[in-house]
Specification:
The chain is α/β, with parallel strands linked by helices and about 575 residues long. Helices cover about 60% and strands about 10% of the residues. The protein is built from 26 helices and eight strands. Strands 3, 4, 5, 6, 7 and 8 form a six-stranded mixed beta sheet that branches. Strands 1-2 form a two-stranded antiparallel ribbon.
């Protein structure tokens, strides 16, 4: 029997099954698409399922989905073609990550905008529960050669059992998801009422959406389409703005509102010139500043949610709160807080095993167990590092572009002495979201301590300038100043650092004060280390070598500790 072509197969799938798959894609935080692209996908899917696929053209999409007027000309305005390309890439990425086991494939073949629907050969057949699978389905092989297609008779048999199989699949996989802040980016107001002002307002808004969307721990949505129910997955935050033009410049005023009470959480103004050669760069810079201010760790959204008290929080909010508590812990990095945050994150990934961010943060906690706890038991330290690397890879496996997972993988690889691999991960990750200052600072530290002090310390300084909320930057800048020979500057940075209970803080302080000739301060640090961290002092060379990659840096640091008064064997 001849294999049925794709066009024939798509009509065999029940519309409700295709709509369920569409809903799964649109509700996934891993579907990297703007609100307009999501409306694009919904529109073409619904038109096709309604039997109107032949009416789907660039003109109809522009008018019905994008709100263009009747004069739209697809020959001169490529907006539909561009958005379709973005949408195809978003679907490809989704099916490579969160949707790798989804039973239904929705694709938009190049050369047109009509979607196709096809049934995967694997996910519905891999270990389904015995009571709901028919004998025909149970006898099908789990794997197929790429050149073999499901025959029509077999497809009919699968679909005959499809209702019960899909019912099990959706209920077993959709067990809920952790809370994710949603930000509605409204259209920016044009205060001049001119075509030029409207174009700049639209361009700024689209660039802000693009830059905000790089932060995967928030969901960015655009203004609701006509007829869309605003009560479905409502955004808790609203970003609004206005653009005003003068003769040769524009001003963007933008503000973030708490949707619950319309209170203003943050407001800022940005100015830019109108020269064509500079306009795109200016828009990008402004959008990066807005996104960094709002969405990064210790940013406006984090602060708003960290200060929000939820009585008897449901599981989704409790899991999200664990990520907030991680960043609160990182402000002081004390062992007591680390223990409670670790337990919270372990509970979160147990409840939500596909929560990539929680796995990444849990890995970073395990790394802190390794680098800040000095038990004197090498096996215990190695086990903590192995747990860290496993959790990091679990995070990246769930979401290949999750920044916290990739950050954890980079640091774990570094301490595993796989330094080239760690720096490769760091370089790749910085291109995914160059606005994430938490990662920028960590990657800068990895570069610096691996021997590239110049580039690494520049990144650390840039991270602190954009986000002074993390005391980590002060410690790193103290290390940078120390290795550049500026010991007074190093002492200034170390005195600003808020980590009095952290042993590595005292270790660096002893080196800085010892090399800089600050005897009283050096004596104080040595006394603290001898009293509180005897295992660290005993294994000083091993501790320092684990952190500094170059032997000359290790020896210089140990020499400074000797000057401070610590007894270290040659």
């Amino acid at each position: 029997m001849r294999a049925e072509p794709a066009a024939g197969r798509e009509h065999r799938l029940a519309p409700e099954v295709c709509r369920a798959q569409l809903a799964r894609i649109l509700n996934s935080a891993d579907f990297d698409a703007t609100g307009r692209e999501r409306r694009f996908l919904s529109h073409v899917v619904e038109e096709t399922l309604a039997g109107r696929g032949d009416r789907i053209k660039a003109y109809s999409i522009a008018v019905e989905v994008f709100g263009r007027d009747m004069s739209f000309d697809p020959q001169t305005d490529p907006i539909v073609r561009i958005e379709a390309g973005h949408l195809r890439r978003g679907l490809e990425r989704y099916y490579l990550t969160a949707g790798h086991d989804d039973p239904i494939l929705i694709t938009i073949p190049k050369g047109g905008y009509v979607p196709t629907f096809s049934l995967r050969s694997q996910p519905l057949l891999a270990d389904p529960p015995t009571p709901v699978v028919s004998a025909v389905v149970a006898q099908l092989p789990v794997r197929r050669s790429p050149s073999r297609l499901l025959l029509p008779s077999v497809l009919v048999a699968v679909l005959a059992a499809g209702a019960s199989v899909l019912a099990w699949w959706w209920t077993s996989v959709r067990v809920g998801a952790p809370e994710t802040p949603r930000v509605l980016v409204e259209s920016f107001d044009d205060l001049n009422g001119t075509h030029a002002a409207a174009a700049i307002a639209s361009g700024l808004r689209q660039e802000v959406v693009s830059q905000l969307s790089k932060f995967k721990d928030i969901v960015v949505v655009e203004s609701a389409a006509k007829g869309e129910d605003p009560s479905i997955s409502p955004a808790r935050f609203v970003l609004a703005g206005s653009v005003n033009l003068s003769t040769d410049a524009f001003r963007l005023r933008v503000r973030l509102l708490n949707r619950a009470d319309n209170s203003v959480l943050w407001a800022e103004s940005y100015d830019g010139g109108l020269k064509v050669a500079q306009l795109m760069d200016v828009q990008t810079d402004i959008a990066r500043n807005v996104s960094s201010s709002l969405a990064q760790a210790y940013g406006v959204i984090f602060q708003a949610d960290a200060n929000l008290h939820v009585v008897n929080p449901p599981d989704d909010w409790a899991a999200y709160s664990c990520t907030l508590s991680f960043y609160a812990y990182r402000v002081g990095v004390d062992a007591e807080s680390r223990s409670s945050v670790r337990a919270c994150l372990e509970k979160a990934v147990d409840r939500f095993p596909t929560y990539a961010t929680a796995w990444g943060l849990l890995s970073l906690i395990y790394i802190d167990d390794y680098r800040f706890e000095f038990s004197g038991d090498p096996a215990e330290s190695a086990a903590a590092l192995d747990r860290a690397l496993a959790a990091a890879r679990r995070s990246v496996g769930l979401d290949p572009v999750n920044i916290r997972g990739r950050q954890a993988e980079m640091v774990a690889l570094y301490f595993h002495k796989e330094i080239d691999a760690a720096l490769k991960v760091g370089k790749q990750t910085l291109t995914i979201n160059p606005n994430d200052t938490e990662f920028m600072g960590e990657y800068g530290e990895r570069l610096a301590v691996s021997g590239n002090w110049h580039d690494g310390c520049q990144l650390i300084a840039e991270a602190r300038q954009k986000n002074p909320g993390s005391g980590y930057y002060d410690v790193d800048l103290a290390l940078c100043s120390y290795f550049s020979g500026d010991y007074s500057q190093a002492a200034m940075w170390i005195n600003k650092s808020p980590f009095p209970s952290n042993p590595v803080y005292h270790l660096l302080a002893a080196a800085v004060f010892g090399e800089g000739g600050y005897k009283i301060a050096a004596d104080r640090e040595v006394a603290w280390l001898n009293q509180n961290q005897p295992d660290l002092v005993k294994n000083m060379r091993q501790v320092v070598s684990a952190r500094l990659a170059r032997s000359q840096d290790v020896e210089f640091f140990l020499g400074s500790l000797r000057k401070a008064g610590l007894g270290i064997a040659d």
